[in-house]
Write a structure and sequence with these properties.
The chain is α/β, with parallel strands linked by helices. 36% of the residues lie in helices and 19% in strands.
Length: 314
């Protein structure tokens, strides 16, 4: 993990985000904020995800613009940061929400995890020196860091008890590890299936034309589809997507296993598409799909490996 601060913001808030970035940098902190990188593509998406995994502090910028937008790439960044925070100790500083206007705390359209943290109010991104000092102290592991900002600039929120969350997540990560091992072993080590050529006959009993079989997807290839959220709380969509993304990320590290990019596989979310169609469009042999159901302290995750060409569960 680096000592960098990641700024996440709606595109309309680029100027206030720039002011906060300049103040943090003036305090000697490394900041990941680059307006020139606000572009699409799998490479850019992978870079953003990697930075969220590696940054030391994640600063979501909350405003009337984030209130007005029900969709946006910043919301994916928020979700990824929240998913990562669930694997951290409760006293580990990571999420540092910032409000840059009069957006009320109670009605802010943010993940619940943000409400458990201190919120700093920096109107229009100005007067961020106290916030920069607080961030610097947190990165220096100064116990006083969490109270370095003045009371007028910070809204304090009590963190609820963990209720066994750490133990649950430990088992969850272990379970995903077992799934990865099983999937990679089956996909990578199985014997390839040879597809026969198609023989087309004519009226002549002695004449036959050999037609090559249709082009098959790459061997040892897989796409991880977004897991279905079966929980009563629709907000757990963040969690089910996070499970899919974590599994995809780990599978990508396996040598000789080609994994479809996240943007490509998640493009089928909510669409009534067959396994054969997905396999053809992504050029993969196998599909990993599943569901997540959270109830109280329990999480039930079902994972299926399906042969794309036939739609048969392996």
């Amino acid at each position: 993990m680096t000592q960098a601060v990641f700024l996440s913001y709606a595109s309309e808030d680029a100027e206030p985000a720039r002011r906060i970035s300049e103040t943090l940098r003036a305090a000697g902190l490394e900041v990941w904020f680059d307006q020139s990188e606000l572009r699409g593509g799998d490479a850019w998406d992978a870079s953003i995800r990697q930075r969220i995994k590696e940054c030391a502090l994640f600063v979501p910028i909350i405003s009337r613009n984030t209130q007005a937008r029900s969709e946006g790439y910043f919301r994916l960044e928020w979700k990824l940061a929240v998913d990562r925070s669930h694997l951290m100790a409760d006293d580990q500083p990571f999420l540092l929400p910032v409000v840059i206007d009069e957006t009320p705390d109670a009605s802010a359209r943010v993940p619940d995890r943000f409400r458990e943290r201190q919120w700093s109010r920096l109107p229009a991104g100005e007067n961020a020196e106290a916030f920069a000092e607080r961030a610097r102290r947190l990165l220096a592991s100064d116990p006083a860091g969490s109270s370095a900002a003045p009371e007028a600039a910070v809204t304090r929120r009590a963190s609820p008890p963990a209720h066994g969350r750490s133990r649950l997540l430990t088992w969850l990560v272990a379970g995903l590890g077992a799934v990865v091992v099983a999937l990679s072993a089956f996909i990578a080590l199985r014997a390839p299936i040879k597809e026969p050529a198609v023989v087309a006959t004519t009226n002549s009993a002695t004449e036959a034309v050999v037609v090559p079989a249709a082009r098959k997807p790459e061997p040892n290839s897989v796409a991880v589809l977004p897991f279905t959220n079966l929980s009563d709380d629709k907000e757990n969509e963040y969690f089910s997507d996070g499970i899919s993304e974590e599994l995809l990320s780990v599978l990508q590290q396996i040598p000789d296993l080609r994994v479809a990019a996240r943007l490509s596989s998640f493009s089928f979310k909510g669409k009534n598409t067959t396994a054969q169609e997905i396999g053809e469009k992504l050029g993969v042999e196998n599909l990993v799909e599943g569901s997540v159901r959270k109830s109280g302290k329990s999480v039930r995750i079902t994972v299926r490996l399906t042969r794309a060409a036939t739609g048969v569960q392996v």
